[in-house]
Amino acid sequence: MIREFDNAQADHTSQPLIATDRAGQQLEQPSIEAIWTLLDAVPDPEVPVVSVVDLGIVRDLQWDGRQLVVTLTPTYSGCPATEFIEEAITEALHAAGIANVRLHQQLAPAWTTDWITESGREKLRQYGIAPPVGSASKRSLLGEEPEVACPQCGSHDTVQVSEFGSTACKALYRCNSCLEPFDYFKCI
Ligand SMILES: [Zn+2]
């Protein structure tokens, strides 16, 4: 599997969110909202142009006393990115001064591309990856081929070249209008 670490998105600089005294004790807890914003700067290791929040991997954030509980739903099962995502999230929280973190993996309901946010879809498009089309549940019901728009020129005259693109989570497409190949983020 090829990882794309060549993106400028990866330069998330995190400021400590909370004040600590000399013993490193937390003086106050950052708001859940501030932590969502912080995690929205953590890039997905496979598609660094989108954050783990954009992808819908981070399901819930909650303070349990002094411990932050982060609920995650991994994307494609068998995608080795999951442990990288967990590490990246833990590192970002530690860098922000949140040391007491518990990661909770929630496997049901299973992650679906429907959870990718609108801003995540727009970022994919700008990066040259066609975002998943429509609703995953509907697709599997109808068994239809998606009508994928070319992220370069917007044409719907596109054809699937290979079921696997630069990573297993993507398919390789080609545009018949501008002739450019592009990755399509597979709908699941
Ligand atoms: Zn095109």
Your description of this structure?
The chain is α/β, with parallel strands linked by helices. It has two domains: 98 residues, Fe-S cluster assembly (FSCA) (GMP Synthetase, Chain A, domain 3, 2-Layer Sandwich); 73 residues, no CATH class. It is 21% helix and 19% strand. The chain contains four helices and seven strands, in the order αββαβαβαβββ. The strands form two sheets. A four-stranded mixed sheet has the order 4-7-6-5. Strand 5 and strand 6 form a beta hairpin. It is elongated, with a radius of gyration of 18 Å. It binds zinc ion. Zinc ion binds next to loops.
Task: Tell me briefly what this model is.
It comes from Marinobacterium zhoushanense. The protein has 188 residues and is of the alpha/beta class. Helices cover 21% and strands 19% of the residues.
Task: Domain count, please report it.
Answer: 2
Bound molecules: zinc ion
| Relative helix content | 10-25%
Distance between the termini: 19 Å
Sheet with most strands: 4 strands, mixed
CATH superfamily (homologous) name of the largest domain: Fe-S cluster assembly (FSCA)
Question: What is the strand content?
Answer: 15-25%
Radius of gyration: 18 Å
Which stretches are low in confidence, meaning pLDDT under 50 for 5 or more residues running? 1-12
**What is the H-and-E element order?**
HEEHEHEHEEE
Number of helices: 4
Shape: elongated
Question: What's the topology here?
Answer:
Elements: H1 32-39, E1 58-64, E2 67-72, H2 81-95, E3 101-105, H3 118-127, E4 129-130, H4 136-142, E5 158-162, E6 170-175, E7 181-185
Parallel strand pairs: 2-3, 4-7
Antiparallel strand pairs: 1-2, 5-6, 6-7
Bound molecules: zinc ion.
Region (Disordered): 1-22
Domain PaaD zinc beta ribbon: 136-186
Domain MIP18 family-like: 33-95
